[in-house]
Amino acid sequence: MRFTPTTDPATAAQALADGQLAVIPTETVYGLGAQAEDPVAVARVFAAKGRPVDHPLIVHVRNNAAVQGWVRSVPEYAIALMDELWPGPLTVVLPRSERVADYLTGGQDTVAVRVPGSPVMREVLRALGEIVNDESVGIAAPSANRFGRVSPTTAQHAAEELGEALADGDVVLDAGPCVVGLESTIVDCSGSAPVILRPGKVTAEQIEKLAKIPLADSTNTRAPGTLASHYSPAAKVRLTSIDELAVSIGNQTTGVIAMATVPTPPGVVRISAPHSIEEYAAGLYRALREADSLGLRLVLAVPPEGSGLAEAIRDRLQRAAHE
Ligand code: TXA
Ligand code: MG
User: Fold this and answer.
1) Tens digits of per-residue pLDDT, 186-230?
2) 29-56 per-position pLDDT tens digit
3) CB neighbours of 197 closer than 8 A, spacing ≥ 6?
4) Nearest residue to 146 (alpha-carbon basis) of 35, 28, 285, 51
């Protein structure tokens, strides 16, 4: 491993200013960041992940004022979303401005922007802005996993995923486990009504209430990267009900993810037993990774019931289970 591990946001900011990559913590998952206007560094992000170049990146900025230069226009309904939900686990897709290069968006006319809430990530953005003397500086960052794999929720997981692809001078910034544990909610605000492209902690109900117009259907919208199969561990993931789980015949190569109230059938390995939906989300990706590190062949997951964050968990489990 040739990267520099650190807990100091200023070290990550300096690396980004120097054209290096930095693994950065956000409240959702860890990202692999490059300064958004550095084409060479951004190309390394795609290469490190093994990600097709037509899968656009999210540009992270410090605050709502900094978003303005990156977008051409913001529809009325999106203003309340941005004011109320940022900084936070929300990404908004808007018509892009001249500032956004083709290499960030895969040539699309829109750009995904996010003002992250993690204090450490915010400090990276502030410090980078100071070094390059531009408060609206952007950090382009996808989740810090190999393409199609499970997103990392700790610095160690990110280093396991991408450490080999990092080089001298690149930095891995450790700020502990991510609080949310699932990627941000993505809302396309480039049309006449908001469309949810990826569910997350920010819920459809919250968005509809703030936007004050009904959400549009997502079926016709191109959401590159939100593929049916995604977030996959090496182990096979199968969704199951509480009743099915009770009669399932597992063995020591079978793992189980379910709320703590659901009993573990004999013989299987319990890899997650959360007490709340929040805990389920925060621990899901860790559990999927643990399945692989234990060499499990099969993970039986009982999806949580309910709306909001539970929906986002079901979305990720379905993609992880998709073959
Ligand atoms: O929580 C998150 O969003 C994390 C942290 C690091 O911010 N980032 C993340 O990035 O999940 P990534 O690249 O793994 O997922 C972003 C998704 C991709 O599916 C991408 O195709 C989609 O957002 N996306 C990016 N720009 C878009 C655009 N202009 N239009 C539609 N979808 C877009
Ligand atoms: Mg990702």
Assistant:
1) 999 999 999 999 999 999 999 999 999 999 986 655 555 556 667
2) 999 999 999 999 999 999 999 999 999 9
3) 93, 186, 187, 188, 218, 221, 223, 226
4) 51
| Mean pLDDT in residue range 150-159 | 98
Task: Point out the ligand nearest to the CA of residue 225.
Answer: 1
Residues with CB under 5 A from ligand 2 (ion): 143
- Closest ligand by atom to 153 CA: 1
CA dist., res. 181 & res. 178, Å (int): 5
* pLDDT tens string 263-321: 999 989 999 999 999 999 999 999 999 999 999 999 999 999 999 999 999 999 999 99
Residues with CB under 6 A from ligand 1: 26, 28-29, 31, 55-58, 91, 93, 105, 108, 110-112, 114, 141-143, 183-184, 186, 197, 223-226
Mean pLDDT calculated for residue range 225-253: 84
Burial of 95 from C-beta contacts in 10 A (0-12 / 13-18 / 19+): middle
Which pLDDT value is given to residue 87?
Answer: 98
CA-CA distance, 160 to 226, in Å (whole number)? Answer: 23
Residue from 53, 154, 183, 221 whose mutation best tests the ligand 1 pocket (most atoms within 8 A of CB)? 183
Rounded Cα distance between 300 and 250, Å, is 9
Q: Name the residue of 28, 30, 58, 187 whose CB sits within 8 Å of the most ligand 1 atoms, as the mutation to test its pocket.
A: 58
Phi first, then psi: what are they for 254, rounded to 5°? -110, 130
3-state secondary structure of 71: strand
If you average pLDDT over every residue of the chain, what do you get?
A: 95
Of all ligands present, the nearest one to the C-alpha of 95 is 1
CA of 184 to the centre of ligand 1 (A): 8
What is the pLDDT, as a whole number, of residue 222?
53
Q: Please give the number of the atom of ligand 1 that sits closest to the Cα of 24.
A: 6
Mutation pick for ligand 1 pocket among 186, 202, 315 (CB with most ligand atoms within 8 Å): 186
